[in-house]
Sequence to fold (293 residues):
Amino acid sequence: MSRSPVRTAVFPIAGQGTRFLPATKAIPKEMLPVVDKPLLQYAVEEALAAGIERMVFVTARGKGAMEDHFDIAAELAASLQAKGKTAELALINDARLLPGSILSVRQQEPLGLGHAVWCARHVIGNDAFAVLLPDELLWSPANPALAEMHTAYSRVGGNLISVLEVPEDHTHRYGIVTPGQVDGLITEVKSLVEKPKPGTAPSRLAVIGRYILQPEVIALLAEGTRGAGGEIQLTDAMAQLIGVQPFHALTFTGERFDCGDKAGHITANIALALERPDIGPSVREWLATRNLG
Ligand code: UTP
Fold:
């Protein structure tokens, strides 16, 4: 099985974001900002840090803002230039990608995450690929999550998922790994248990939104089997590769924010704002007035 560098990343961004209505009625969830940057830009920057060259956006109707965000904004750039706003100009240029590095495909109906990944099949071809769920912000600036996974992948190959150690009483909210051999932060995956009943979880390792997968998963997704919620689930297809191909989990040691959820999004904003030298002090000051700082 190939362990050649992973160069393609799929960003499933065609969901409806119903947990975040009404904000997501006209604005894609993945364009919601954390402090001043859209969620999707954090994920794209994480992919770039991992050496990804091809970004595949799986989009839907009304989501054109996401492609525009990584394009040239010629009028805005000219206007900022004319006004001498060089810092602002740098910010918009930072969000540009090399021409041709975004490929976009449509998921015509939101039939589930697995279906979204399958929609990218012609771009994925026969190589291993990464999947990043941009509404999960994995915050670890010194060791970005996908780059760490890429390093681990070069050792173990096969399929590699990101997991987070969660408290015992939270395991029922996640897909949980049944662990095999453990080597530092890399755990062999024996099976995946979706949302186990309290007290029955096989570990505290919860599956989170970063994956490096072998292309064989596409044929399994093509079967279109409906799983939880009547959706075509990526987890169900992945689980069929366990025991057939190497399958490991890498424990993420940074902070994860579920920004598809209102509370998770607010927490991410506070946490990242506090780290910023420009706005951190005033946010901290306000928190202190509420005895929270
Ligand atoms: P979520 O389940 O978090 O997204 O999927 P959602 O369905 O938009 O959210 P809610 O539950 O209604 O609030 C995780 C990622 O998968 C994408 C989403 O856009 C999100 O980035 N997704 C999900 C798709 O691209 N297509 C789908 O059919 C489902």
